[in-house]
Amino acid sequence: MTTGADGRGLAGFAALLADPTRAGFCLALLDGRAWTAGELARAAGVAASTASDHLTRLVAGGLLAEERQGRHRYIRLADPGVAQLVEELAARAPTPATPPRTLRAASEGAALAYARTCYDHLAGRLGVLLHDALLTRGVLDRSGGLALTGTGVTWLAGLGVPVEPLRATRRPLVRDCLDWTERRPHLAGAVGAALCGRFLDLGWTVRGTGRAIRVTPAGRDALAETLGLDPALLAPPASRGSGPARA
DNA sequence: GTCGCCAGCCACACCGCATA
DNA sequence: TATGCGGTGTGGCTGGCGAC
């Protein structure tokens, strides 16, 4: 990430994202995984040489990081700050005028709006519901800025997420991250990432296609019991019969 | 309207690595 | 060692945009 940039530097940095192909790469990489250059090229629908050129620019600009293993070039977002930047820019972007053209595209959009990963934490309807429930239950408090409470430390320990190792990292423990589908904050930071991983470990959630996350029946029961979340709100989009707030 | 510049894209050739 | 595959670099084409 670049700090203290002058106008020219800021314009150059913004120009990195002002291209549909490069922006598409960054959105794809929000799933937190490392992609090969070829995978990103196919996902964006451009030639490998085109993708290679764009990726070189994004890496040089500090938005992406690369790791070469043999003949593969693995690409990921440079850091969680980049993920937050991309997610918030997406949240402020105008809604596309054209609705999804195919049933598959509509289903994928609905799945992402329902629950997905935002780099390494939960986003979408699930992420926002979780964020709100944690505030209601006193796990989080925002009277002086978003913070983890003593009750929250105990609750996390009960869930199998010790907080002390998280404090040792340089990341903020808890942080708001503006959700681009719900237009409301979901939980990011070290605790957000730890909860996302713990839910997967416990089998409360499973990874779907791409960035999509699904809540399992056991997960719905557990989230209802531990956080008071309404299981009806956690039902997958198909069974609720309503489309996404935004495709 | 024309010209020049720039950015994005692709086809192609080439290189390096993994595998049979 | 030969072959196939993933990734890179280069050259050319195209479209957008500003200057004249």
TrEMBL record:
Residues 2-97 form the HTH arsR-type domain. GO terms for molecular function: cadmium ion sensor activity; DNA binding; DNA-binding transcription factor activity; lead ion binding. The lineage of its organism: Bacteria, Bacillati, Actinomycetota, Actinomycetes, Micromonosporales. InterPro entries: ArsR-like_HTH, HTH_ArsR_DNA-bd_dom, HTH_Metal-responsive_Reg, WH-like_DNA-bd_sf, WH_DNA-bd_sf. This is Transcriptional regulator, ArsR family. SUPFAM superfamilies: Winged helix' DNA-binding domain. Pfam families: HTH_20 (PF12840). PANTHER family: TRANSCRIPTIONAL REGULATOR-RELATED, TRANSCRIPTIONAL REGULATORY PROTEIN. GO terms for biological process: response to cadmium ion; response to lead ion. SMART domains: HTH_ARSR.
